[in-house]
Amino acid sequence: MKFSELNLPEAVQQGIAAVGFTDLTPVQEQSIPLALAGKDVAAQAQTGTGKTAAFLISLFARLLRGGPRASQGPRALIMAPTRELVVQIAEDAKGLGAFCDFKIQAIFGGVDYDKQRQALKDGVDIIIATPGRLIDYAKQRVFNFDRIEAVVIDEADRMFDMGFIKDLRYILRKLPPFERRQTMLFSATLSRRVMELAWEFMDLAEKVKIAPEKVTAEQVEEILYHVSRREKFGLLLGLLQREADASRVLLFVNTKREAEHLAGRLQANGQQAAIISGDILQKKRMSILTDFKEGKLRFLVATDVASRGIHVDGVTHVVNYDLPQDPEDYVHRIGRTARAGASGKAISFADEDLVFYLADIEAYIGHPIPAVFPVDEDFVTNYQPYAPSRKAAKGRKPGPTKPGMGKPAKVREEGAATPRKRARRRRGGAKKTSTEAPESSGS
User: Fold this and answer.
1) How many helices (H) and strands (E) in the chain?
2) pTM, to two decimals
3) What residues are paired with 348 via a beta bridge?
4) pLDDT digits over 8-45, tens only?
5) Which residues pair with 275 in a beta bridge?
6) Taking the domain 3-210, which CATH number applies?
7) pLDDT tens across 168-199, in order?
8) Would you say 29 and 1 are in contact if contact means Cβ atoms under 8 Å apart?
9) Which architecture, in CATH terms, is 220-394?
């Protein structure tokens, strides 16, 4: 189905044409007609399936048909769990809504507190926000929710995972009752807890559910390598040398420490790499993502927690350097490539510690991942070693020591006398040879 076949306002059609969309994705084809009919929608949709365009197009059409803004209060609210996702939705909204003359404002923590506050006071049509800062402004009465006509909850399952559900419920209770507004909910899974949220705050929501065989995007080529943990880095370098089109690579690991180590090893071998970590300042995070989007960084290393909300078109490869422990995380990870109809490749490493999670992942996605045992030619062995800088190592806790141990022992020259030898010489003892009987315990 093509967008031109939908009964959309001309301004929305112009925005769709400007960004180059022609054919609807499955989630768009199922959800947009329901939303245009005024129904509440609860949709299961992975990242990269076109869900953002689905709710933005539906939202714009509703607001345009409702007439011009009658007051300074916001008319629509979109909530997302992460700052990066808020920024991405706002960028998409400005593209698709370029001819709609809406005032759109992103609200999230870490930057521009006074600027965002003033924008709300001046009046906006659409707020795109993380829950925390939005509640902050609402409690200060910078704006109110009284005239909200439509609300979107994006990545509802992540709202639960990241501990935002109390804030989300607080906001939903402040909105006009569900019979006076339209609600659209999008989630990677329509689990019981997500549907309980829909039953409480939505008006007989129509469910849109992608078939299980489409949990992972069809355009993603999946491959898994069985490799030992100590050989993973050499295999990574070897595979990426062979993949000529690996221009924008997102690497996933399970811990922040491993992310720092992997990024350091890549940098030590002349690669442009950075990490997305929870303790990096928001402006720095946004700068790193911008560099990655613009091709200034080839490699971006991330954990699942830090990467939530990373939506970058043109990611050629996703590498599960560490196999995830949660099957849903596998789907979220590989969904970062093959977005908006493009193709992509997902490479996973199953080492001796993490291979035990493979069965659960394959059961969840409904198919086995094609597996390969690498050969010698797949590895790079002459890579440069990586040693963390003193600054990086300064904050690390020392390893376990035996009782009574102080500073690390100095390396002795060959033949130098040990404390035990010196004591024996002071007592006049002779040097023992290998043929002498051992000293008794009472000597």
Assistant:
1) 17, 14
2) 0.66
3) 224, 320
4) 999 999 999 999 999 999 999 999 999 999 999 999 98
5) 301
6) 3.40.50.300
7) 999 999 999 999 999 999 998 888 899 999 99
8) yes
9) 3-Layer(aba) Sandwich (3.40)
